[in-house]
Amino acid sequence: MSGIPADVDADAAPPMTVPLRHFVVALAFLVAGVSVGVVEGRAGHLAQVHLLLAGWVCLTIMGALTQFVPVWCGIELHSRRLAAVQLPLAAVGFAGLAAAFLTATPAILPVAGAFALVGVWTLCYNIGRTLLAAAPDVTAIHFGWALVFFALVTAAGFVLAMDHAVGVLPLLGIGRQGLLLAHGTLAVFGAVLTTVAGALAQLAPMFTQADTGRIDAAVQRAETAVYPLGVLALAGGRLVGSPVLARLGAVLVAAGLGAVAVLLARQLVGARVEWSPMLTRYSVAALSLFLWAGLTVVAWWNDPLAYTGLLGQPSTALLVGGIGFVVFGTLYHVVPFIIWVHRYSDRLGFEDVPMVDDLYDHRIAAVDGVAVTIAYALLASNQWFATPDGTALVAGIFAFFGTLLFAGNLVAVLVAHSPQSLPTLLTGREHTPAEDS
């Protein structure tokens, strides 16, 4: 059956409620983040960044790691209790950070930062203990490094939160701009994109069914070895103000993400399955990452320490095209897949059951894809060219419309096909097979 991989161990997965709860809460952060961008504009920039990158992307990653590390590796999750605890802690922390920035209340930041740190470190411990029993393949190595970066970025974020409230950096002898640059580097290129690279190493071949040659495997092994070191060098160089170290890291990071883009594009070109919303969005991500890597390596070589160049040039290509479209595409398969496994897999061969990609509305997926792509194009043009006043607002409206349709389409999958009701799923009660009868 199309879209159902044969080489994963679904029996090793945690209860359905654990990852799906992460994804539903993350979707709420997505809609809230886009809404803040439309309503507040630049004034809500810090709040929007934390709603989207921490709330939407990182909570999605936390749910995905909890689901697929056991599935891919065929081993039991270390602790289901810890997996259930990490979401409320991290979600409260991320929401608190956004609220503090929106209301200009720095006193909230250390409290929110502490919640976020404990929630994320709970994930790091739980998944780290699980990975210790896994074979060290490309994906597992990426995920291990991602956990290191998650731990580092939340620690740096907590120090920044304390500095906002009581000014601790002079006592620590750390420059604020250097720590901000290191925090952003560890968050985007470390925690998020290391996870993305590791996931794509599994997802792209799995869902394109394309052949992988020896050259592809060699490039992937090289990227696995040098990319995390590049992130550490770039973050470390920015923290201590060393242009030489940061420039070395910048070259490795740009080269690594360029390699990820090329490998993904090769898989998509060689795809032997029907095109789907997942693969369509991956194609946008591959092109965006490739263009970003080529433009950014020049900008970073000239000045790797500039705050304006924190995320390279253009940053929209990285954040929206590279990260956003990968998450959009992945969720369009992961959410229906989890539901399918728990609702229909036992019935396969005994009665007619839908395929994974039949669970969501393809017409809505097409419309939300067009809307988000238009928003992406408008944001990119607004960043690079002299565009008419109001372009950013129009982009925000398209983004809001597209993300609302996207979130609604996935929630509809839960409502129509989940063995549990949405309120029951969110409260965390585990589903039992007897409830299917």
TrEMBL record:
InterPro entries: Cyt_c_oxase-like_su1_sf. The keyword Transmembrane helix applies. The keyword Amino-acid biosynthesis does not apply. Keywords: Membrane, Transmembrane, Transmembrane helix. The chain crosses the membrane at residues 20-39, 51-75, 82-102, 108-128, 140-160, 180-204, 251-269, 281-301, 316-341, 362-380, 392-416. This is Cytochrome oxidase subunit I profile domain-containing protein. It comes from Haloarcula marismortui (strain ATCC 43049 / DSM 3752 / JCM 8966 / VKM B-1809) (Halobacterium marismortui). The lineage of its organism: Archaea, Methanobacteriati, Methanobacteriota, Stenosarchaea group, Halobacteria.
